[in-house]
Amino acid sequence: MSDLNGGGAERVVLTVSRCLDRARFEPSLFLLKKEGVYWDEVAPDMRVRYGMEESGRLRYRAFSVLRKLMAEASKNDVVVGTLELLPSYFAYLCGAISRKPVIAWVHADLDRHLEIYGSVSIHRRVIKALYPRFRKIVFPSLSARNSFLGLAPRVAGTTQVIYNPVDLKIVISKGTENLPEWAQTCFTKPVVVGVGTLAVAIKGFDLLIRAHAELLSRGVDHNLLILGEGSDRQLLERLAEEVGVSKSVFLPGFQENPYPFIRHACSLVMASRFEAFGMVVLEAMVLGVPVICLESASGAVEILDRGVYGICVSGEDPSALASAMNAIITEPALHQLYSRLGKERVEFFQPEQIIHQWEQLLWNTGRSCSR
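User: That's the sequence. What structure does it adopt?
Assistant: Structure tokens below.
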């Protein structure tokens, strides 16, 4: 994995590794860089190694990192590239040299994500060349899988969808922590919360700010809290000024523990223009917080079962999004309904419902190598 910096995919990898049956599996973790915030979620018995323990550009240390990875892989039976692109590229090279079976784990809607990732043509060529060579490619949703097939149609026979698990105990426990003092002002009114990297091309926070302004203009008093950091911070701050809501939009940056903020919110809104899964949707549902998402966030729509367990809004329409927010804020019965349905839905995503699929995949992959 790249590192342990904040992100839903990193948390999912750590959840799966913690929950594997230790009578059958001995997981280890190799980080390309020794960076991150999720150290407390690493299983105490899991061996952790690093490609780079100091800051610096990976491109200048690639061969050194690969040598260290090879040494670690020699102690294992299966290699998993736990994130798309670079971690999986390293995993493939490691497996090809050491003759270990390699599984690629794709968490993003990669066909869309490449449009803003950079070096698009290079990545497209590498994906078409390498991904058909993986033993298996795992996706967190059907929509993520189908999107990827547009990049590499030859991999269709080696794909598998395994939904991401959510660790209810961790989310609930961390959700009980107190809000910081600065947040008291924000929560004097009903709060709508959004969580994610401040990148409007992906997360659509510009749409959320416009929907917030629209709802305020209808006389529904509330605040908007967006947790995350990213390159579009100034763009979002300017937008809030332009539409006259700078005093009711809070942008406190990345929060290592977002759960107390989510727990105290009246609704979580995912305004993503695309989303392969959306762990924060599950985490909000664990905490009993109703979820609203755009239909373009196709992975989150799968979690909500196309509107059964939350509200799905079609199109990039701030007015329609504002109407959905209005319903949750002003109709207590509807809020209670989606709070209850959300808690029911997350039962399907508990680790004991998901981990056995990973255990079967890893076991069969390892056994096929040993034969």
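The domain at 8-165+350-370 is CATH 3.40.50.2000 (Rossmann fold).
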